[in-house]
DnaA regulatory inactivator Hda
Amino acid sequence: MEVFLNTPAQLSLPLYLPDDETFASFYPGENRSLLAALHSMLAQEHGSYLYFWSRKGGGRSHLMHAACAELSHRGEAVGYVPLDKRTWFVPEVMDGMEQLALVTIDNIECIVGDEPWEMAIFNLYNRIQETGRTRLIISGNCPPRQLNLNLPDLASRLDWGQIYRLQALSDEEKGAALQLRARLRGFELPEDVSRFLLKRLERDMRTLSLTLDQLDHASIRAQRKLTIPFVKDILNL
């Protein structure tokens, strides 16, 4: 899936997002209220704002990608701004984004103390409020008031809308999430292999998902099912 960091009328930087990070592949756990809010927001024709937060690896980017995929598949223009990769672009990339149907700003904690970026997001927020057409989703690693932004007006703006905590999955739920992802990719992840991965790897979903993708490719090349001995061999565990 391709989304843009700027409006179609201007020079734009395309980003290719994972095709498998959709709402269908997101295991909800204790996050059904957040998911319901996101679906409701994306179903509306008018603009709205939502902020959610979690620790790193909690699934923030997955939900951002899923929201972009939802509207992109409906033919609407979307923008995804991963602030952890902001060295790739400049704050002026925000100019004109109020013309898009959806703007998603990921990892806002990465620009705390960076005045040009804080001002760019503040100005975009105000333009979106004025036009009333764009849906805006922002993610961070803590609630807006705890970001310690240098620009007080930005902190207060971010605190005005719907705010949710993205609840971490339990180990049991992470196992179920991996099995869901495997089924969507067309293979089965045995429960004993799932438990083994959770015991031997970093347990954030990003690491687990990337490892699952690696194992999927390895099993296809070797024409073997996923077993604990095979996983040990592939991952050098």
